[in-house]
Each structure stands twice: as structure tokens, then as C-alpha cells.
Specification:
homodimer; 3-stranded antiparallel beta sheet; 7-stranded antiparallel beta sheet
């Protein structure tokens, strides 16, 4: 069947759910959930996000030229959902949702303690693309909770990363398959 | 623990696995698997891929300015893996892997019949970004197999989309969770 064109993205799913934490020019914290995100380069390490222009996240990235990508797990589904609600600019979704800040190593914006891992990023460039803005950040520091990364690989079954399916539906991948050939 | 910067993407996973099918200037078919892919706009409908510059897929998109995004399911894991092997330019991975072509409606490049859904795309722009090239395409036609899209939503449990975890490891999301609040 034909999909309405504006709904094409519904079957490019589920996608990794992340919380982006930022500061505004006055140093006030913001955090919001996104799933239009992908790696775009290993060397240098670059990550791309597509953000709606009205989001506080984009305003903050423009003001401070940095952001933290926090990888979400099933454990914080309720808190992530609260972070997605509409709060006035300057209100910290991290505090409102009951999450806690994690001290960053390089950037000024805090991470979120209860996440699987964290990428501290500096804005590399942005490009308006249709009804969103593509933001590319350079990963300055990448960390992961010890228990979720073993022998050089992500331990999916332990980490239980949250994937966004659409609306209030999320998926948790719990089965691994490998080609036989 | 710290992640080596070039390995940051290992925990931004699993990611939707797609096969990109293209034609070269001589009309020869190519198909290759990717997971650096995300929606970037609803209106107009735009999709972004990050491609390594040496891939035939990128050369073909530059030659013909179109491509088809085929959403992969667990059913074609073996075939997708074969499509990822190195074949000479001009050899059709669709045929080599035992998949079959699907007649496109708008572009010239064929889709792949055994997939969940298909986006026929025209190249909008490309941008070199680190060691990859970001390619943004406009979705001209989007279709999905009837049985995988019900009441306006993607039926994840039926479709069994394949997510790439890393190397030969893929994940299949089979559990759905929703916030209670």
C-alpha cells in the first residue's frame, strides 16, 4: 500500500532514543528526547541530529555551540517521556523528571546520570533541511557504563536501549541474530 | 569507562538496517546494506544517509541522482549479509543474493521485493562530513506491505525489522513498552 509521504518515517523504525542535554546562554539546563539521530563519521567522530527549529535544544546549541547525547535505556522510559513534555525555557527537564545531572568532562552542559552512555559534543555545522535542521556535532568525549560494554562490544541484552517506534510506543530489542554464511 | 572516540557509534545502536538499491550510468543494478540512516523532514519528506566515499552506492547516486531505500526484515538477514560483501562494480547484489527486483513507480532504480517497505528517492544534496558523505534524498514514493501497516501505525511485531548492532550482530525488537503517565 502507499504511505502518505509525510508518514514515510513511521516504517524507518524503531530508532535509538536519546536525550540531548544543553545549556542556554544563561547557563540554564535543558534536556529533550530525540530519535532522528545517526553516526556520520568515525575519524573524526561525528554525529548528526535532525531537530525541529522551534525546539529549545536547537536554540541552546546555537547559543552555546555544544550538547551532550545521552543514550536512553528502558529504565528511564517514564523520565524520558516527561522530558518530552512542554516546559518553559529555563526549566530543567532533568530535575522535573527526577533524573540527575552528570558532571561533564569537557563541555559545560551536564549529562544525565541514569543513561547508558554519553557523548560530549561541539557543534561542527548545521544545515536547514526541509522542516528540520540537521546539526552535526564532533564527539569530544565518549563514555559508557562499564557493565554495558564488554570485550569491545555493546552488551545490548544488559543495556536494554530504548528505541522509539512512534508516539508513546517504544521497543526494546532483546533477541540477537547472525547470518549463518 | 571511556570509549575510544572512533568507537562511539557502537553504543548508538542498534540502528535500522536498510538496503540501498541504485543503478549506475550504464543501468546496472547495485544493492548494499547501511544503518547510518535517519528521517530528517516530514514536509517535504527527506531522508539522510551517511555513506563511505568508496562505496559503489555513492558513485551510482552521483551518476543517476536517485536511489531506493528498502527496509530490511529478519527474513532476509542472510541475503542482506551477502549484499554487504565485495562484488565488482556492475554485478547485481540483488541477483547474487537470491533476492528479486521490484518494479519502481517513479525512479528507474529497482526496489527489492522481499523488504518491508520502499522509499523511492531523488538526490536533494550531498555534503562531505568527516570520513563519510551525508546524502539527503527526497522521498518521491513510499510504500509498505499491507500486512505491516495497520490503523496508521507500523506493526513492528509482524514486520520484524532488522536492526544492526555491529559486525555480524543484528537485533530484532520484539517487545513494546509505553510510559504510564
Amino acid at each position: 500500500m502507499k504511505l502518505e509521504l509525510e508518514n514515510f518515517y513511521k516504517i524507518l523504525a524503531p530508532r535509538p532514543a536519546v536525550l540531548i542535554s544543553t545549556l542556554d546562554a544563561r547557563g540554564r539546563t535543558n534536556a529533550a528526547p530525540f530519535s532522528f539521530v545517526m553516526p556520520v563519521s568515525r575519524t573524526p567522530p561525528l554525529i548528526a541530529l535532525a531537530l525541529a527549529p522551534q525546539r529549545h535544544t536547537l536554540a541552546n546549541i546555537r547559543e552555546t555551540r555544544e550538547f551532550v547525547v545521552n543514550i536512553a535505556s528502558e529504565e528511564i522510559l517514564e523520565e524520558l517521556w516527561i522530558c518530552g513534555k512542554s516546559f518553559p525555557k529555563g526549566v530543567s527537564e532533568i530535575k522535573e523528571s527526577g533524573l540527575t545531572e552528570r558532571k561533564p568532562k569537557i563541555v559545560k552542559a551536564p549529562g544525565i546520570e541514569q543513561c547508558i552512555g554519553w557523548f560530549e559534543c561541539a557543534l561542527e555545522f548545521e544545515k536547514e533541511t526541509g522542516d528540520h535542521v540537521i546539526v552535526v556535532g564532533r564527539v569530544l568525549n565518549a563514555e559508557v557504563k562499564d557493565e554495558f560494554f564488554r570485550e569491545g562490544e555493546f552488551d545490548l541484552l544488559k543495556a536494554k536501549p530504548l528505541m522509539h517506534l512512534g508516539g508513546e510506543n517504544f521497543a526494546i530489542p532483546e533477541r540477537i541474530a547472525r547470518p549463518q554464511k
